[in-house]
Amino acid sequence: MIERTLVLVKPDGVYRALIGKVISTFEDAGLKVIGIKMVQPDEDIAGKHYVADEEWLLSIGRKTKESYREKGQEIKETEMEIGQRVRNSLLKYLTSGPVAAIVLEGNSSIYIVRKLIGATEPRKADPYSIRGRFGADSYDMGDAKNRSIRNVVHASEDEKSAKREIALWFKNEELVSYKRVDEEYLY
Ligand code: ADP
Ligand code: MG
Fold first, then answer.
1. Domain end (from 59, 79, 96)
2. Per-residue pLDDT tens for 141-187?
3. How does pLDDT run across 95-105, given as a tens digit for each residue?
4. Which of 50, 60, 116 to mutate to test the pocket of ligand 1 (most atoms within 8 A of CB)?
5. Which residue, 12, 31, 85, 187, shows the most beta carbons closer than 10 Å to its own?
6. Is 49 in the pocket of ligand 1 (CB under 6 A)?
7. Beta strands in the chain (DSSP E)
């Protein structure tokens, strides 16, 4: 059913002039841009965006450990230690330059956007996904350079976070309502 989701083109995507290609990918899939703006995030909004939710910190640790294991390597930190370390580097990443904040609307948009962006690690992401097409970074490269993975985009993970993130980045009156000319053929 019709849902809204938040996408951020992260600073690496903005610096690499990928905003247009990222938006085209979503528009081509039938999603409608109902909010869009450039923002230079400060510590406050970055901290609220990447709120220190325990489940999420653990899931970051789990995904990271799994990626190392697949490569036959081992990472000694606990899942929580990894999650906390990554969150700190993420705050630096998000405040390091401008982001494009975008709200997309469409059928099952949260799921579709996550599918189109691909896996967190660009090295692993599907080659047709945004992160796979436009990225080459990996967990171990990020760790070696003591920074967060550069993967061009953020997208909300579920309905609850989509609602929270849209309200964080946009005022209600910054979101618009209109009909795409192809809507009757899409749905
Ligand atoms: P996603 O962005 O795919 O939802 P997560 O929510 O798990 O991924 O992580 C948020 C962001 O943190 C990722 O997009 C990535 O930029 C960064 N990140 C995650 N794990 C690591 C890690 N082990 N090392 C460096 N950066 C990481
Ligand atoms: Mg996430």
1. 96
2. 998 899 999 999 999 999 999 999 999 999 999 999 999 999 999 99
3. 999 999 999 99
4. 60
5. 31
6. no
7. 2-9, 32-39, 99-107, 153-155
